[in-house]
Amino acid sequence: MPVTKEEIKRLGEIIYLDLTDEESARFADLLNPVLKKADELLEGLEEEPLRHISQLRNRMREDEVGIPMPKEKVLANAAETQDGCFRVPRILED
Amino acid sequence: MHDFEAVIGLEIHVELSTASKIFCSCPTTFGAEVNTQCCPVCLGLPGTLPALNRKALEYTVKAGLALNCQIARHTWFDRKNYFYPDLPKAYQVSQQDAPLCVNGYLEIPVGDSGTKKVGINRVHLEEEVGKSLHAGETIIDAVYSLLDYNRAGIPLIEIVTQPDIRSAEEAQTFLESLRNILRYIEISDCKMQEGSLRCDANISLRPKGSTAFGTKTEIKNLNSFRAVRRALEYEIKRQAGLLRDGLPVEPETRHWDEQKGVTVAMRSKEQTSFYRLFADPDLVPIDLSAEWIQQMERELPELPGARRERFIDEYGLPEYDARVLTAAKEMADFFEEVVKGYNDPKTVSNWIMTEILRYVKEQGEEAEGIPLPPASLVELLQLIEGGIINRNQAKEIVLPEMVASGKAPRQIVKEKGLEQISDTSQLEGVVASVLEANPDVVQDYLGGKEKVMGFLVGQVLKETKGKANPRLVNEMIREKLKQ
To answer: Chain A residues with CB inside 8 Å of B27's CB?
Structure first.
């Protein structure tokens, strides 16, 4: 199924990429042959989609408490901190 | 004018009471210093590999079984991607296509003796998000936010009901019943004030008798049973007002403002959510065997419904008593402990339902439990039975002091000098002087007016500041006047 440049633009918005109309159109043109090829491969296929490459099952850990990371290390890569917390810009838009 | 019916569905999040997080060994202690319970796994740092906490899986399956759900034999986790900083990974591990438990129900009490089944659409396992502290009064007017990731990665179950609830009151009853059952199976402490049980509500109205659904709104920020009820009552009125005026109900998320008692529309950056879900490649799928599921079922304790029936059979309690006592695990446990020491179930039940329950209610809707140990109530009941104190003294003086100070009843009786005087030699003088002071009343009694006995006993009690054993005084006066 081909994608439209509007869908590409919308996808860009979702991942915070501000695409121009030209860029959206160009990406749609680039993507569509790939999608077409994928559709051809999938045609007539009745297999369940493979969700995991590994055949491993039920890999679990016991409910045991370990030692967490020191707070300074937790915050080491934060762009901004305040009162021991990560500080982030306003979350909701008007 | 239309008569509307409310159609309500709830989405409940419950933090599981495991010691460690869902995919790493960080502790889950409530109230720890901010950002001190984090590690590379729950912070989503590169190169880490999460592994599922076995207990979180067991707890979820137990919740599903207690809610009469079918348990999936094959399941996996999905990544739900979004740009919201409450998780540092930019995705939440959740279950979209393969929830662990589906198609269950919970039976809730309605009216005086009826019950109603509320369908459970699904129970799935996911990870808790971090805590956002908003600079500003609410999330809506916040200038910036501070993130504490201690909570991020605590195992969380999401329970989604069918739209079977028809009133704000029913929603509250459902939540109370759900909380009770989850506490019975000991998978969560379900404290709404600490956020370990949270509820969002979907609500729409439709003309009574209609089977189609109206446009729904979703209400968030419901932090207590009372908030759930009040917010739904408000939203029912609001939507009914719009519909009566021929105005549309907007399909939106609304925020409950507890202070103002209103719901307010809120919009987020990702108004039209597109979560790009896909199976988490780091977490391997899970196969559950029938044997293992049966094992979980065997490990379930007696659930509230079964316990209610047993209370009726085993202790000969009325249905009403059995229902009240089993409505909270702590209460039912307390009852059974007291009966072990004082084998008169109906008396114990009466004391719990009237006196003890009053103290529990005073603590608010999220009472930590019964404010005294079972042994104390046993002792109190024995003091009454032994004639050491009377029932009124027990209720009005000793019990309040037991709750307030935690002292044993016997000690309180001693300190307050409440022991009844049950020694005739101590009472003889008082009885004699009361009879002497009331010759007319004595004549009335001797003339056949039995009723005046109460007056005479009362006088003796007054003289002894209520400490005389009334039954004994009664006998003594009778004996004296026979002569």
So the answer is: 65, 68
Task: Name all domains of chain B by residue range, CATH numbers in brackets.
Answer: 4-294 (no CATH), 302-360 (1.10.150), 372-419 (no CATH), 424-482 (1.10.10.410)
Q: Please list, in sequence order, all residues whose beta carbon lies within 8 angstroms of the beta carbon of residue B264, skipping any fewer than 6 positions away.
A: B140, B254, B255, B257
pLDDT at A32 over 80: yes
Return residues 4-43 of B near A (CB < 8 Å).
Answer: 18-20, 24-27, 33-40, 43
Q: Tell me, what amino acid is at B71? A: I
- Using DSSP's 3-state secondary structure scheme, residue B117 falls into strand
Average confidence score pLDDT of chain A: 90
Please report, for chain A, the start and end positions of each structural domain, with discontinuous segments joined by +: 5-42
Average the pLDDT over B70-92 and give the result: 93
**In chain A, which residues touch B (CB < 8 A)?**
14, 16, 51-54, 56-69, 71, 74-75, 82-94
Of the two residues A81 and B391, the one the predictor is more confident about is A81
8 Å CB contact of A74 and B18: no
d(CA B105, CA B56): 21
Residues 312-331 of chain B with CB under 8 A from chain A are none
- Span B173-189, mean pLDDT? 94
Query: How many A×B Cβ pairs under 8 Å?
Result: 134
Q: Is the dihedral of CA B147, B149, B152, B154 positive or negative?
A: negative
Token pair of B245 as six digits: 């005026």
Instruction: Report which of residues B53 and B329 the model is more confident about.
Output: B53
